[in-house]
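Thread title: Can someone regenerate the structure for this chain?

I was given the following input by a collaborator and told the matching structure tokens would be attached. They weren't. Posting the sequence so someone can regenerate them.
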Amino acid sequence: MAISEPSKTHDFVAADKPTARRVPALWRRYLQLTKPRVVALITFTAIVGTLLASPGLPPPGALLWGNLGIALAAACAATLNQVLDRRIDEQMTRTRGRPLPTGQLNERQALVFAALLGVSAMAILAFLVNLLTATLTFLSLIGYAVVYTVWLKRATSQNIVIGGAAGAAPPVLGWAAVTDSIDPNALLLFLIIFVWTPPHFWALAIARREDYARAGIPMLPVTHGVAYTRLQVLLYTVLLTVVTLMPYLTRMSGLLYLAAALVLNAGFLYYALALKITARAELPMRVFHFSVNYLMWLFAALLVDHYLPALRAS
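Best answer:
Regenerated them for you:
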């Protein structure tokens, strides 16, 4: 579950200094551990998978309990990620304002919180949804919190490409909550997010290259340079354009989705091309922020297109 976001970084100032910032309420500190904006996007894609899995409205239990369990598992993975990355976070401007580097929470508190989230997620999915969804969600959690965070992130510049599979899983999980199976259309949604992840994350990595270099993380801009990474962002965006046409070509979706996908892809290609041919300092973050909105609106278009025939018939 590796979808990323720009953290709102604040340097922690000791409480006895006149310029000290107020420490957030305890519940806010725990909420920050879960990366709530990331979890919100993950849960949205899972909900879309749940709704697309049924011709009409899905069973209420699958919709409610399935997505609650997926959201809790994503929050657990995000919390474990912050525990395991604490020393890295301390060295990076983007992340040093998080609760663990600032000392607002300690590792034991975070681990207990992660355990509560993880156990709750697995219990909900296993007993109130189905074992397939619980198993796939657990594997996704381990893939992000352990395989990506502990190994891939530190081992290879292709970390986000390989580790992106965990972040691409939520639509498949939402679909499985309804059908208790792995459907080809759900795998197509997985493929869209999988291909979207590298240009999304590498745009951020370009903007934060010095942070990653200081922390010793082999992100692509650090190991291969910014120019090469800009090219890869463009190439993956071209590939993403092709992949996002597949729901229409396979008749999973209709003309409304196709129109939205063409407009969104034109915008993404424009930003990726601008990133490739210009050196404007603000462009990497603009590409990053656009990519988040791109995914949200693309999945929203899938959803509206799915229910459009029913709306016309009513």
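The CA atoms of residues 67 and 267 lie 30 Å apart.
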